[in-house]
Amino acid sequence: MANFGRGRRVARTPSGPQSAVELACDALRSRILSGQLTQGTHIAEQSLADALGVGRATLREALRILAYDGLVVHIPRAGTKVVTLTLQDAYEIVTLREHLEELALIHGIPAAPERLEELESAVQQLERSAEAGDEERAVPDSLVFHRSFIDLAGHSRLTTAFGTILYPLGLLMHLNRQAQSDFESLVARAHRHRRLFELIADGDGAAVAAEMHSHSTTSFLKAIHLPDDNASQDALDWAQSRGYGCSH
Asked: Sorting pLDDT into bands at 50, 70 and 90, what band is 210?
């Protein structure tokens, strides 16, 4: 089970026993980010509470936190559902991610040794999961890696800004993994992140930027139709420039 911690934070080292609410949050995040609970799924509270072995009050508190994370939405008289990301959401999440990672690259390379060590730990986890063939770890491991990359800058407000899109970004990463899994194995994916880490360790910002630009983060746009009725023209132009609609 992925341990992400509370409120958009990606946990790295547990600091103590977790509460029932935190355990429920981790279980639900894992199910959503792995696709076990797909976007738009209605949350049947009693059956889910029974499946997790918690009371409904605990589950409701966990759902409140996940709503803050941007993973579920409460709809009056309809209950709680896993969020459904739209094309506008994807545009805003991806473009913000790219700008924040560009800032992290500018301010974080060359990297401080202790921050570089944390990033290498994230790469090693990617490699362990790949060797085990653990697809359920693909998104959680990626989130830890990219959060560690953002942390290279040592810029608390940059880290906070990234936190606002962390889990919705995880949903897009899951869609992207689905789109790429037929032609990129978990091992190849881990190798790609290892190569990026080595360039970061070398302190070559231009090479890091080039490598990052070679990573396809929006393959899902060619494979999956997202609700786009309320998309802005900027979002539609962005999506079409990345192949949206080519496969459907």
From this structure: very high
The rounded distance, in Å, linking the Cα atoms of 53 and 67 is 21
150-198, pLDDT tens digit by residue? Answer: 999 999 999 999 999 999 999 999 999 999 999 999 999 999 999 999 9
Whether 224 contacts 200, CB under 8 Å: no
Question: Token digits for 224?
Answer: 């999956």
Q: Residue 248 is inside which H or E element, if any?
A: none
Report how far Cα 13 is from the mean position of its chain's Cα atoms: 18
Distance CA 94, CA 172 (A): 9
CA distance linking residue 212 with residue 206, whole number of Å = 10
Separation of alpha carbons 34 and 138, rounded Å: 8
Task: Report pTM.
Answer: 0.90
**Beta-carbon count within 10 A of 92 CB:** 18
Rounded to whole angstroms, the Cα distance separating 13 from 3 reads: 9
Asked whether the beta carbons of 163 and 9 are under 8 A apart, the reply is yes
Q: What's the CA gap between 144 and 120, in Å, rounded? A: 11
User: What residue type is 190 in one-letter code?
Assistant: A
